[in-house]
Amino acid sequence: MLKMWIGKDSFMRFFPLILLSFFILGCVHTELPFDNIKISFAEKKQTIVRENLPAPEVPVVEEKPIEKQPELEKIKPEEKKEIAVLPPVQENKVTIHEIQGIPDEVQGKMLLAKGNYTVEKKITVPKGSTLILSPGTILTFQECGIVCQGEIQAKGTASEPIVFQGADGWDNITILGEGAFGVFHHCEIKDGLGMEVQMQKDKQCLLEKGGTFQGGAVLIANKARGEMVDCTIQKNFSQSAIALIYAQAFSLKDCRILQNDENGVLSIETPCEISDSTFSENRKVGLFLEGVSKSTIKSSIFSQNRAGILVRENANPTIELNRIFGNVVGMEYQTTSSGILRENILERNQLCGILCIEESKPTLEKNKIEQNSIGILIKNNASPSIQQNTLRFNIEIALLMIDACSPTVQDNQITDSKIAMVLQVSTKANIQKNQIQNCLHEKQIAPQNAFDKK
User: Fold this and answer.
1) What region, left, alpha or beta, does residue 194 occupy, with left being phi > 0 and alpha being psi -120 to 50 degrees?
2) CB 3.0–4.6 Å: which of 46, 111, 322, 347 could bond 370 by disulfide?
3) Cβ–Cβ under 8 Å, residues 244 and 222
4) Phi, psi (rounded to 5 degrees) for 25
5) Number of neighbouring beta carbons within 10 Å of residue 300
6) Which residues lie below 8 Å from residue 318, measured CB to CB, with a gap of 6+?
7) What CA–CA distances, in Å, run from 299 to 78, 181, 233, 392?
8) Are 131 and 108 in contact (CB under 8 A)?
9) pLDDT digits over 193-237, tens only?
């Protein structure tokens, strides 16, 4: 293969375009999960004051548009009913009491009959108790929510989903403490504002005023567990629609995480299994993973978020067989994160398909990285291993390496891009056995000050 080394004069023809892309990328660098946000929470009236951040411009993706979830009809508050406790039902030698009204506190094992309920006070599920919701139940909350230290079972059906909502916003569903467990099948959760959370050094989170609002829909924390199947989590507020903070385990399958005000799912030191789900049109990040945990994300779609997936602070997930498209940044690794990104499709992301910064060191292998402005951008001291990927039709640069990064780039196919590789002179890249075809320029060496901010 004939290698073309482009001189200074040739480089300067492309330098303004490269520099513009790099500066724009710096402007959308993803914020940390507990940055201050402008939220006030009055005692009787909850008000969200959103950050004055414009929604990112997202490139047009020639895909079948995601169907909008139909708005649920407004539920007219019913007159408050006295709770009727029906004769107990024996099931596996456990007594289940069927109730036809909302309890303030669940005692033992209670089955809430199907109905439309207006909830005016917090529902508490203490340790050792279980609240079961019947398919087709609709709960409309008024400035309150559910706090569960026992178990909540919300198993709807495709034809009779269980709905959690609030006309003017509500708290959320909080599942807290070792042994607590939340199961949600065929549920719709929307309009939630979340709970104020204070993070502790002993890896506990406390519900305290003055903290950061998390879990607009659901908060699972402090060794609790959660399971979601075929649920829609849509149009919730706070910094995350689903917050997993030091939880024991969480699984998400066949779910839709859509149009939430900040991040779709935030996971801090929580092992997650996520599959066959869609994360779309969340204003910041679709899926945010932080801290040591073994998580698996596969066969899902991440589209039209500011960042599809963000990994940071020692998180090391396995991410495979996903489609990540139409975001501003498709996949972002920060700080000391690692993990495996394998056999994914990353395409048509506005600025770059994959971003590796700071001291991140993921393994990127066998991915298809296509039609992004920049295919892969590596900067700072990042040292990813990039092997057996296909980078093609990336508009400006297939692979951009700057600062003191030290990637290993081996056995990749790079085709049909304006520039195959751009390296800053300070880069310590190990580049070998790559196939480069149909690129206007194969390799460009950028001077040390090429990407300095003016």
Assistant:
1) left
2) 347
3) no
4) -60, -40
5) 26
6) 294, 295, 296, 297, 298, 339, 340, 342
7) 42, 25, 18, 22
8) no
9) 999 988 887 788 888 888 888 999 999 999 999 999 999 999 999
Cα separation, 311 vs 291, whole angstroms: 9
CA 423 to chain centre: 31
Quote the pLDDT of residue 212: 86
CA dihedral 148, 252, 263, 193 (to 10 degrees): -30
CA 43 vs. chain centroid, Å, equals 30
Cα–Cα dist 216/238, whole Å: 5
Give me the pLDDT at residue 22, please: 55
Predicted confidence at residue 342, as pLDDT, reads 98
> Which residues 6+ apart lie within 8 Å of 454 measured at CB?
none
Q: Is residue 348 left, alpha or beta, with left meaning phi > 0 and alpha meaning psi from -120 to 50?
A: left
Between β-strands 151-155 and 187-190, what pairing exists: parallel, antiparallel or unpaired? Answer: unpaired
Which neighbouring-strand residues pair with 12?
none
Distance CA 360, CA 383 (A): 6
In this predicted structure, what is the pLDDT of residue 168?
84
Looking at residue 430, its amino acid is N
Give the C-alpha separation, 156 to 347, whole Å. 35
Name the token pair of 58: 């997202």
pLDDT on residue 15: 53
**pLDDT recorded at residue 25:** 53
CA nearest neighbour of 99 among 134, 144, 123: 134
Q: Within a 13 Å sphere around the CA of 301, how many CA atoms are in the beta-carbon half?
A: 16
Position 368, amino acid? K
52: three-class secondary structure by DSSP: coil
- Name every residue whose Cβ is closer than 8 Å to that of residue 68 and which is 6 or more positions away in sequence: none
Kindly state the tokens that stand for 383: 């040292």
Q: Is the dihedral of CA 447, 449, 452, 454 positive or negative?
A: negative
Overall size of the chain counted in residues: 454
pLDDT, tens digit, 9 for 90 and up, residues 44-82? 334 443 443 344 444 444 444 444 444 433 333 344 444
User: Of 238, 243, 250, which Cα lies nearest the Cα of 268?
Assistant: 243
Positions of the chain with pLDDT under 50:
1-8, 11, 23-24, 27, 31-86, 89, 91, 454
**Burial class, 172, CB count within 10 angstroms (exposed 0-12 / middle 13-18 / buried 19+):** buried
Single out the residue of 178, 289, 281, 282 nearest to residue 244, CA to CA. 289
DSSP track, 151-217: EEEEE--SSS-EEEEETT-B--EEEESTT-EEEEESEEEESB--EEEEE-TTS-EEE-TTSEEE-SS
Query: Could you tell me if 314 and 291 are in contact, meaning their C-beta atoms sit under 8 angstroms apart?
Result: yes
8 Å CB contact between 30 and 285: yes
